[in-house]
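Help needed: design a sequence for this.
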């Protein structure tokens, strides 16, 4: 039978540059089973270049929601930014409820960059802005609201293209 994934240099003891185009299924298996965090980082970088591959998007979305280490979930939530919104928004919305504030902030920051994320994306950013206990998550949400719905952040404030800074700030 074929191997489920391949690890070259277990433990990363050799400084190397390796080009090894693994199939998406092998990368997905490695992402969910490899105990080495550096290897997972490499796998996420490989999957990030496959933005038109639905299996790659599914593997990254799964990692953003269920990886055992928070940093892996942060990187996965960030990596989803390169994939179509249809693949990224549901996973990032779920990650916005993670137990780790770093993961929630990465998810909310990513959602806040999507102009085509729909009402679900805007609702997730609004919920994080008003209800998250972490100031970091709320800050990411405020920035996202500034992009997605500027009138919700500071009603009545002039926005880019509408006269610049307020008269009080121009003095």
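Sure. Designed sequence:
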């Amino acid at each position: 039978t074929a191997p489920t994934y391949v690890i070259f240099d277990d433990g990363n003891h050799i400084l190397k540059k390796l080009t090894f185009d693994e199939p998406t299924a092998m990368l997905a298996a490695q992402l969910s089973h490899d105990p080495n965090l550096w290897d997972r980082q490499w796998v996420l970088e490989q999957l990030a270049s496959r933005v038109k591959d639905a299996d790659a998007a599914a593997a990254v979305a799964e990692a953003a929601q269920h990886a055992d280490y928070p940093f892996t979930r942060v990187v996965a939530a960030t990596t989803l930014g390169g994939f179509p919104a249809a693949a990224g928004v549901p996973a990032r919305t779920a990650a916005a409820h993670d137990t780790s504030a770093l993961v929630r902030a990465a998810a909310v920051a990513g959602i806040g960059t999507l102009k085509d994320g729909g009402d679900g994306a805007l609702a997730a950013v609004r919920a994080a802005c008003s209800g998250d206990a972490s100031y970091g998550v709320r800050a990411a949400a405020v920035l996202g609201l500034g992009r997605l719905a500027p009138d919700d952040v500071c009603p009545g404030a002039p926005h880019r293209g509408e006269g610049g800074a307020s008269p009080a700030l121009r003095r």
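Confidence is low (pLDDT under 50) at residues 165-171.
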